[in-house]
Amino acid sequence: MLKPLVWVGKGKTAQFEPFEFVLGEKKVRGSCAGIGNDWGEVINLLRYKRIDPKPMFSQVVPLEDLEDALNEQKTDKNIVKMFVSPEIDKRININD
Amino acid sequence: MSKMMRAQVIEKPGKMVLKQVPVPLISDDEILIKVKVCGICGTDGKIFSGEYAAEYLPMTSGHEFWGVVEKAGKNAQGLKVGERVSADICLPCGSCYFCRRGEGLLCKTFTQLGIHTDGAFAEYVKAPWKNCYKIPDEVDIIEEVMKITDGIGADYVLEAVGKTETYEQAFKMVRRGGVVEAFGVGRQRKNGSI
User: Are B106 and B172 in the same domain?
Assistant: First the structure.
């Protein structure tokens, strides 16, 4: 099974044993972002309900709550995905 | 005086201030978008803490957004005021070796909207019109297939997503005697992979 492991941060380093890397024929690949028609393809998958990200949605918060939400997202393990809307003044829980 | 809006401005690492700032002015090649929703990404936390792109502060972050077109620059094609849009946030230079090969992510002067330029934790955000993608209404794919095949179903269905639900969709779409070709990788053993 393919098990991608992605965790980066400026100034962070990782170590590995060259033996394990070479003898294990491991491959390392970097990836930065989606670009161009990746957007169009994802929108199509959503349009035809081929993918459903909603189970990952946790909460929509007002613009005023952004800083709190950033902290909560870091510390509360029950939160998966949070959104901000400048058009609401109360938080909206999704999937409750 | 220019029109003002609310925006969360990261003034320096660890300091975020909700303030009134001018609504972005657009060029002929840009779209002004009234933000409806913007997702919070891990990168937003790193920008706030100063771990990433700190040299671009002060700025407003937020790059996972959708909204409605408020104003379209005169060169914008196929985008009308009031339409729902999202945007590719990548802003490669467009003319270097990599950009000319269609590999914009490798562009050395590559920047991203909401990471290196003002983003969507605000009432409005601007984006180049060529980066904008219209958000269509949701469609029931089985109804669509039945409509275009006069209620018979498709001869062939290619299934590449590989989830239980999408296999079920594929079987509903195919006509009696039709073929479902499945390929791809099943992430879990309970899903078929052919």
Answer: no
- Residue B58 is given by DSSP the state S
Searching chain B, which residue's CA lies closest to the CA of residue A46? B138
Q: Which two tokens stand for residue B173?
A: 């779409």
Is residue B194's pLDDT more than 50? no
Task: Identify which of A39, A49, A85 has the shortest CB distance to residue B36.
Answer: A85
Is any Cβ of chain A less than 8 angstroms from the Cβ of B46?
yes
Q: Is there a cis peptide before residue A18, judged by omega within 30 degrees of 0?
A: no
Residue B192 lies in a domain: no
Measured from the Cβ of residue B77, the count of other Cβ atoms closer than 10 Å reads 7
User: What's the predicted TM-score (pTM) here?
Assistant: 0.81
> Is residue B188 in some structural domain?
no
Query: Are residues B14 and B48 both part of a single domain?
Result: yes
The answer to whether residue B61 sits within a structural domain is yes
Report CB contact under 8 Å: B88, A39: yes
B154-159 and B174-182 strand pairing: parallel
Q: Is the pLDDT of residue B139 over 70?
A: yes
How confident is the model over A11-26, as pLDDT tens digits? 778 888 889 889 989 8
Closest partner CB to B16 (pick from A38, A49, A67) = A67
pLDDT tens figures, B21-39: 999 999 999 999 999 999 9
Residues of B in Cβ contact (< 8 Å) with A1: 187
Q: Which residues of B touch A9 (CB under 8 A)?
A: 46, 51-52
